[in-house]
Amino acid sequence: MSLQKSYTFFAPVYDALIQKTFASVRASHLQVLNTLPPKKILLIGIGTGLDIPYLAPQHQYYGIDITRAMLSKAQQKHCTHPHIQLALQQGDAMQLPYPDQYFDIIIMHLILVVVPYPSKALQEAYRVLKATGNIAILDKFLHPQQVAPLRRIISPLLGKLATRTDVELEPLLHTCPQLIVSDDQPVLAKGWFRYLTLQKSA
């Protein structure tokens, strides 16, 4: 089963499975947007739009997801927050349909370990990010040389259905050496889930 088909299946129950666990983390992660002047912001893997209630209204947002059913849920949430300027589009995180250096900020919540090739998704985010722009990431990453045998064993199967469990951040960063980690905080599951901010060097 492809990920697109999997998330079409998950779409009706996705919020019930995910929303409560990550609500406070999302709210905290996105709070900084309230303090910024108007920006052009891309949400990669916007899914059902769980970030939408926490978005500051002064910015121009673009949301992209590969699954039409997830985008339909996001559109419903957008209708309840009409003050948010948001354009939704179906597309692939690993081949973004946007020009180089187009966005000031990119938000990647729970998407890097979902796509088949996380390095490609990060490289695409880097490509469409303006110089000195930021990428905000919330996801689960193993630490370098962390054994985690169960997570590594089940990852090939889970990766085909929903999400990988064996991704390490550091090898991904090596593919984009111009991205500098400016913040790295453990948030859930004893540090497996991390909140990171990456800044693009000028």
Structure description:
The chain has a single domain (3-200), classed as Vaccinia Virus protein VP39 (Rossmann fold, 3-Layer(aba) Sandwich), CATH 3.40.50. 35% of the residues lie in helices and 27% in strands. It contains five helices and seven strands, in the order αββαββαβααββ. α1 (3-30) packs parallel to α2 (68-79). The chain is globular and about 45 Å long. The mean pLDDT is 93.
Structural class: alpha/beta
CATH fold title: Rossmann fold
**H/E element sequence:** HEEHEEHEHHEE
Strand order of the largest sheet: 3-2-1-4-5-7-6
Based on Cα principal axes, name the global outline: globular
Ends apart, CA distance between termini? 41 Å
Task: Give a quick set of tags describing it.
about 200 residues; seven-stranded mixed sheet; about 25% strand; alpha/beta; 7 strands; Rossmann fold
Short description:
With 202 residues, the chain is an alpha/beta fold. The protein has one domain: Rossmann fold, CATH 3.40.50.
Task: Describe the protein's topology.
Blueprint: H1 3-30, E1 40-44, E2 60-65, H2 68-79, E3 85-90, E4 103-109, H3 118-128, E5 129-140, H4 149-161, H5 169-174, E6 179-188, E7 193-200
Parallel strand pairs: 1-2, 1-4, 2-3, 4-5
Antiparallel strand pairs: 5-7, 6-7
Helix pairs in contact: 1-2
